[in-house]
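User: Structure please.
Assistant: Input sequence and predicted structure:
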Amino acid sequence: MRGALGPGLLAGLVGAILIDAYILAVGALSHGPTPTELYTFVASALLGKSAYTLPQAVWLGVAMHLAISVGWGLGYAYAAEGAPQLIARPLVSGIVFGLFVYLCMQIAQALIGIWHAPSAIGAFTAIVAHVIFFGLPVAYVVANRVRAAAA
C-alpha cells in the first residue's frame, strides 16, 4: 500500500477538484445545484434531513466529498499495484473505473435513503462527470505517478 499512497492521494485530489468543477459548472449553466445545495446533499448522507437546516453542513459536505474522492483514488492506486493493466491502459481502465464509481455511489445513496431517480439528462451528466472528470483523471494520474516512480 505504501507505493499507492502518493499516487492515490494525488489522483483523488485531482479527481475531486475536476468532478466538482464540472458538476458546479453544469449546475450554473443549467439551473442545477448550487455549491450549497450540492454539498448539503452530500452532508445529508451523514446528517439526514437535518443537514438542510445547518449552514455548517456545507463544509461537512465539502470535506466528505473530498474524503470520498481520495478514498476512491487510494483504492484505484492500490488495485493498480496488483493489476498492471490498470497502469498500461489508463483510458479503458479510467472509463470502467468511472462507471464503477458512478454505480457504487448510486447504490450507496439508495442504501442510505437519499437516492432520487435522475432525469435522463441528469443521469447523463452524472455519468459524464464520473467517467470523464473523475475516472479518467484518477487513472491517468496514477499511471503517470507509478511510471515516474519506476523510472
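Residues 2-150 form one domain.
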